[in-house]
Specification:
about 220 residues; alpha+beta; Beta-Lactamase; 2 domains; 7-stranded antiparallel β-sheet; 7 strands
Length: about 220
C-alpha cells in the first residue's frame, strides 16, 4: 500500500509540473501570435494611409529630411506611433538594385538618441540589409510579421510589415513597425526555466520511484 501511494504521488507531482510547463508554453505562443496579428493589422491600416505618390515624392537623399515631401509622410507615421504607444519604430522602405538590400524612405525616428560614428541612421536613402528577415522581404506581397524575436543595431523587436501599393495594386514599398520584445523575452526565459524544472522533477521522480521499487523487492 505504501509503495502504491509513493508511486501515485510521484506520478502526480510529475504530471502537475508537466502540465504547468505545457500551459506556460501555450500562453507564450498565444501571446506571441496575438502580437503578430496586432502588428500586421496596425501596419496594414497605416500602409493604407500612405499613397504611392507620397512615397515617390520623397528624394532618397539624407538632405531631404525636413522637406515638405518628407514631412508629409513623417507626420502620418508619427500619428501611428502616437495612436499605438507600444510601437517603438515606424518606417517605410523601398527596394534597391541589390537583392535583399532595402533603403529607407521615411522613418519616424531617423537618428539614434545618442549619435556616434558607429550609430546607424535611417535617413532617406540609407541602406538596410534585410536578408536575414524573410518576413520583411515577403511583405512586398502581403502583410506579415516576424515569426521570432529579431535583433539588429537598434535592439530586439517583433516587427510587422505591410505593402504600400500604387493605383494598379503593385507594391512599391513596405511599411514596417517595431515593438520592443523585452516582455516576450522575459516570458521565453521563464518558459525555459519551467522546462528545466519539469525535466529535473521528472528525472527525480523516476529515480526515487526506481529506488523504492528496488528496496521493496
Amino acid at each position: 500500500m505504501k509503495r502504491f501511494l509513493w508511486v501515485f504521488l510521484s506520478g502526480l507531482l510529475f504530471l502537475i509540473t508537466l502540465s504547468g510547463f505545457i500551459f506556460c508554453q501555450y500562453r507564450l505562443q498565444y501571446t506571441f501570435n496575438q502580437t503578430r496579428k496586432r502588428l500586421m493589422l496596425i501596419a496594414s491600416n497605416a500602409a493604407l494611409s500612405i499613397s504611392a505618390d507620397e512615397v515617390f515624392n520623397v528624394p532618397l537623399e539624407q538632405r531631404s529630411e525636413g522637406t515638405p515631401e518628407y514631412l508629409t509622410v513623417y507626420e502620418k507615421l508619427l500619428k501611428v506611433k502616437e495612436t499605438n504607444p507600444s510601437i517603438k519604430y515606424v518606417y517605410i522602405m523601398t527596394a534597391t538594385n541589390q537583392p535583399g538590400i532595402l533603403q529607407y524612405v521615411v522613418d519616424a525616428d531617423p537618428v539614434p538618441q545618442i549619435i556616434t560614428a558607429k550609430c546607424p541612421t535611417s535617413l532617406p536613402g540609407d541602406k538596410y540589409d534585410a536578408r536575414k528577415f524573410p518576413e520583411m522581404m515577403d511583405a512586398y506581397s502581403r502583410p506579415n510579421a516576424d515569426k521570432k524575436i529579431t535583433s539588429d543595431e537598434w535592439g530586439m523587436f517583433i516587427s510587422g510589415y505591410a505593402p504600400i501599393c500604387d493605383a494598379s495594386g503593385k507594391s512599391i514599398a513596405i511599411l514596417g513597425i517595431d515593438t520592443d520584445a523585452a516582455s516576450i523575452q522575459v516570458m521565453q526565459n521563464k518558459a525555459r526555466v519551467a522546462a528545466q524544472a519539469a525535466l529535473f522533477t521528472g528525472l527525480l521522480c523516476l529515480i526515487l520511484l526506481a529506488a523504492t521499487l528496488v528496496k521493496s523487492q
